[in-house]
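In pairs, describe these two lines:
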Amino acid sequence: MLKTIARKIVGSRNERYLKGLRPLVAAINAFEPQVKALSDEEMRARVAELRQEVAEGRGLDDILPETFALVREGSVRSLGMRHFDVQLIGGITLHQGKIAEMKTGEGKTLVATLPVVLNALSGKGVHLITVNDYLAKRDAAWMGKLYNFLGLSVGTIVHGLDDPERQAAYNADITYGTNNEFGFDYLRDNMKFYKEQLVQRELNFAIVDEVDSILIDEARTPLIISGQAEDSSTLYARIDAFIPMLHKERDFTVDEKARTVLLTDDGVARMEQVLKIDNLYDAANITLQHHVLQALKAHHIFQRDVDYVVKDGEVLIVDEFTGRLMPGRRYSDGLHQALEAKEHVDVEAENQTLATITFQNYFRMYDKLGGMTGTADTEAVEFREIYDLEVISIPTNQPMIRKDFPDLVYKTQHEKFAAIAKDVKELHGRGQPVLVGTVSIEKSELLSGLLKKSGVPHDVLNAKNHEKEAEIVAQAGHAGRVTIATNMAGRGTDIVLGEGVTDLGGLHILGTERHESRRIDNQLRGRSGRQGDPGSSRFYLALDDDLMRLFGSDRLKGIMDKLGMEDGEPIENRMVSRAIENAQKRVEAHNFEIRKQLLEYDNVMNQQREVIYSRRRELMETSEPEVFVTDAIEEIVDEIFAPLEAAKGHHEAEDLETAGSLIEDLLDLKMALTTGEEDEKKAVLDKALSRQKELSDVAGQQYREIARYFLLDSLDRHWKEHLLAMDHLRDGIGLRGYGQKDPKQEYKREGFELFQYLITSIRDATIRALSRVQIRSEAPEQEFQHKDDTANLQYSGAETGEAPKKAPKRRSEPKIGRNDPCPCGSGKKYKKCCGANK
């Protein structure tokens, strides 16, 4: 009550913010006559002068009004478009590191040019992130005319570029690309060996288009680069053959809300019988147990043509938010292999993680981040809590006059789709264009079949037919057009009304089902009513829709029965619409908690990742890697002698033997200790350091590359093993709850212990190998250099375009004599250890 009164008196936070920008907008407009008087060459010269002023210390905020005025005039001359004042407000909002919520058709692509040019003048690079390659290429080419007119360079990062092409694109003033490409480039850079191979610069300023799609919808999908692990593909097919023997409720239960499957006692007994094992939950059978549960999920949670499609012998994921196919993306944890076994296509070998990061943590590394979308307000709390981003609703240039009708609720799917087909036919007969939104490929094809029977011509836009997407969407506003589309998120193409359509009521949006996220529904609605155009929207629901069935359809069914409603007769009531919206809010809150929990777990990994990657960068860029070797040797000697020093002369003979064994193992020195005192410690340290000095004298300049090689090789090998260990820890940590322990705290504690062990292992393995390496005088210099060729890496994450099956390979090993000590540090000869199979 008090909040409402206060808001009426002083205005909402959003209103106060917008009011505060008025003087800045006025200042930009005041520059317009002055800028208009400049020639094209004079405009470019002024932009270059402003860039120099920034380099000399002038702040970007100081030059904002003049720069925005230059961009606006440049747009008029190069694109024939002039920014509206509300677009100036959107540009200021983005520059200040906030999210600009702008309705569909308000020109977000043009708005971004304002802060992009301003921040590009810093010389540190600006990234504009889109949801797919098509939009990245389209926007870079389209807006590139403006940037080039102003004397700025533009690069585009899309799938298929080699490293020199990527370096050139990142070194441009402005770089367009997809979220996946930016994220994978970051990970790949942290697998390189030489600083000259790095493609990305420091992460300065990014604007994320469709920010809710990338930072909310994709937040639960980490980007992963992986290599092939041990092949267990035959086991998936074997387990899959047993799944039809199990019966729902008797052998297993399904929780659709949580999307989980659990075996009952009868089911466990049945699987033990067919697998011929005594105890499915024995630690020795944990792999079998995992395969059984994943196979059950594949059969009873994941649906063909809803969650995935089978195309050309491959299981391809369908993005639930956009309806797009995602070639190259694979479900993790063996689920994708289980789906391949279910669909009887080739089961690909499992992969081991080599590098991974979530979008949440990647985008939080930018010095400044802004975002644009038509629908962010429903997730404002999450943006603030997770990313420290404020959502500002930007006013429309023209008043919104679209009519949003209450939902129609039917008893069954059959009644609902019959009503939809009837109403679409009626609207088509009047000549009013209709855009029908469906939540799955299956539903879009069902409705398409009904419309064909009714003789209604239409276009279908789904994951099976997205090649002509832009053309189909662009025509959707013409008289008499009927377009059926899976979720319209991130389409990026305006639906412009054809001639005479405004008189017919504009574009009508017909939703066949409510999505569990209100944003997705709002994105569909937002395709109509752009720039003050007329339009309308209505959603059709059935009590057996997934959302209704899982969240409160029983009460509605009771109301319908009491009212004695006939078959085919709907409820149309705003109270019903509010009840459905409340159900959506509950689902959104639940999903937010899942994402928040994921981030809390990933923050543990993120802190570790930052330490490892910053260490890697140091090793790559240093001109003196031998300093790291010296420091590591000193640390090892200190640790070996620490227990002896703590005993203060009261140590046992066994303690001296242990220290001697460690000295031989880690430093390859046979030195019998008698006292364990300072003089012996100094002797060991001097001998170890002189060994490296001898190696350096023999190798000459090549010694630095040898040291760098072993430092990075050891770090990468052990980091890969650490990622696997953390995966295993994460998988089983939930069981700690049964022991009255907080799983998150246990994960942090044990993760820290594993990380300490990792740091020690990296150091020890490096020195163990370097202490045993021998240089052959005839060895060419390249032998200890990393060769960056390609093979065997796989990428998974969000939509990755045509992701490669093969990609940059890990480094090759240096050539080592077969009788030389193995560089892995085992103490064996190379031919009897790592070189045995070579």
Observations:
- The first helix runs from residue 2 to 10.
- Confidence is low (pLDDT under 50) at residues 799-818, 821-826.
- The longest strand covers residues 535-542.
